[in-house]
Design goal:
With about 325 residues, the chain is α/β, with parallel strands linked by helices. It is about 40% helix and about 10% strand. The chain has 14 helices and eight strands. It has a six-stranded mixed β-sheet, sandwiched between helices. A two-stranded antiparallel sheet has the order 1-2. Helix 9 crosses helix 10.
């Protein structure tokens, strides 16, 4: 193009481009040429122009909003590493506080992937480092025992849709296979995901019933019936005595209704399974629960209930649960 002596203006007219575009391309492809008589001239090389273009393209993209905002970087690190919050929750806190340089969830994940936040990596994200491929079992499982209670299929419609307050899911978080038999009884309210955690000395039915009676005495029989309209459990041996679970220790009327999920269908108690996974952040599998103090158990319960959730519009389960309690007081 430059060898023909045609000015950039005429080339731009033929190609339908702006003259300045042709001039920039000529500058990118400018190379020194030495002829046989060692005379040096500058000519245009399309290969050189493409190489320079590709090199410049690697520097494209918006600048980091984080920049040199060290208070913002420290806030993000503190909430993720020390408070064990997800990037989604951290992004919501940035919006609520109006901190300068606030970023969205997607940008925050990108910063973590790029390693631009000191002290934070993908290993700092509990859910991300624990997530992996699920293995599908091909073997058939046989149900060894069936609960005598009511099936989950007959649970009230408000419990199925999570539109009605007062429907709970119940499960146990156990310790090591050998040694102490201490466990944690977890009750999760389906609408607001509020959790109650009670430490049990063992995994027996008697310990579960004793814990439920303590909760009933705390709220009173009438209020308990309004708060615990139903409880959905699995088919574990500690939950099979449906008459004892439903019978009140303080009144002649039943305290609640108990429904049983299908065997090997943990997704039917999804809120309970998610809450148990959050408990595992503090109580790893194989940890002896007998060594946990009541204060430690209460601290775990408080942390989960004060954790903002996207599904709750970043409200906390505790605040929503307290609103329900005030409404039925």
């Amino acid at each position: 193009m430059s060898r023909g002596g045609i000015p950039p203006r005429d080339i731009a007219a033929v190609l339908g481009r702006h003259p300045r575009t042709i001039e920039r391309e000529r500058e990118r492809g400018r190379v020194k040429h030495v002829d046989t008589e060692l005379r040096q001239t500058f000519v245009y090389s399309s290969d050189r122009g493409q190489d320079v273009h590709d090199l410049n393209a690697t520097a494209r993209g918006p600048g980091l909003k984080l920049g040199r905002n060290y208070p913002l970087a420290e806030f993000i690190r503190c909430r993720i590493v020390e408070h064990r919050e997800s990037p989604d929750v951290v992004a919501s806190r940035l919006r609520q506080t109006g901190m300068a340089g606030a970023v969205c969830t997607r940008t925050l994940y990108r910063y973590i992937d790029q390693g631009v936040i000191p002290g934070v990596s993908n290993e700092s994200l509990w859910e991300k480092r624990k997530r992996g491929r699920q293995s599908h079992r091909r073997s058939r499982r046989v149900v060894k025992r069936l609960a005598r209670g009511t099936s989950i299929e007959q649970r009230p419609f408000g419990a199925q849709t999570r539109e009605e307050f007062g429907h709970w899911e119940m499960d146990l978080v156990v310790g090591p296979a050998r040694g102490s038999s201490a466990a944690l009884l977890t009750l999760v309210e389906r609408k607001h995901r509020h959790i109650l955690i009670r430490k049990l000395p063992d995994k027996s039915q008697a310990s579960v019933l004793k814990a439920l009676r303590r909760i009933e005495r705390h709220y009173g029989p009438q209020r308990f019936r309004r708060i615990f309209k139903s409880i959905t459990a699995d088919n574990g041996s500690e939950f099979l005595d449906v008459e004892a679970l439903e019978a009140s220790a303080l009144s002649s009327r039943p305290r609640t209704r108990v429904f049983y999920a299908h065997a090997y269908a943990s997704w039917e108690r999804g809120s309970n399974e998610n809450a148990n996974r959050m408990i595992r952040r503090f109580v790893a599998k194989g940890c002896d629960i007998a060594h946990l103090t009541q204060r430690a158990v209460a601290a775990i319960e408080t942390w989960i209930n004060n954790y903002p959730r996207r599904i709750l519009a970043f409200s906390t389960p505790l605040s929503l649960f307290n609103n329900e309690l005030r409404a039925i007081a």
